[in-house]
Structure formats: structure tokens, C-alpha cells
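W.,

You were right to be curious about this one. When I first looked at the sequence I had no strong expectations either way, so I just let the prediction run and decided to look at it fresh. Below is the sequence, 128 residues in total, followed by the output.
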Amino acid sequence: MRLLIYYVRWHYGKAIVDYINIVRNFVWFFYNFFSLPLMVRTLFAPFRRLGESYEGKGLHFEAFFTALTVNTLMRLVGFVMRTLLIIVGLLFILLTIVAGTLFFFIWLLAPLLLLFLIIYGVELITFS
């Protein structure tokens, strides 16, 4: 009987606190793995610095518009890539929270389910 009391105390006490910390660590990991703060801060930065710079003297319209076009395209590519990475990172965080919540409720109901299955099994053996 003492073992049952220790188990229930552990299952509904320390194990729940540990489980919440594990889910929190997964959320922290995905938040940092996808570098979400950095991606938001550099959302409009050029992608891989492939852009050209125009530092000529005088009016060179062709060089100026080439640099402007390439820089604009690289910023657009960087924006799209970072936006996709932010969305994927947020999706992973959301899935972690949803799965963590689902398994949390399964964890809470597991002893009751085990008890039900034992009683049902004994009933099947006895009345068959």
C-alpha cells in the first residue's frame, strides 16, 4: 500500500513538474534552433549579401539600376526565406505545445486506464 501512495505522489506531483519542464525545454530549443528573434530582426536584410553596390562617380545609370535591381531582388529573396523559416519555427513550437498538452492529459489518465484494463481483464477471465 505504501508503494501505491509513493507512486501516486510521484505520478501526480514530481512527474508532472518534470513533464512541463521537458515541454518547455522543447519549445525553447525550437525557438533558438530556428533563431526566431534574429529572423525577425533581419527580415528585410539581403540574402547572403549577393547584392552589388554602386559607388561610382558621376552618372552611370546602367550600373546604378543594376545594383538597385540586384539588391531589391536579394532583399525580396531574404524576406521570403526568413518568413518561411519563421513560419516553420512557429509551426514546430505550436505542434510541440499541442502534442505536449495531448500527452499531458494522457499522462493524467494513464493510471485510471490501467486500473480499468486490469478490472476488465479480471472480469473477462472470471466470467468467460
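Here's what jumped out at me. The chain has a mean pLDDT of 89. And, maybe more interesting for your project: The CA atoms of residues 89 and 98 lie 14 Å apart.

Coffee later to discuss?

I.
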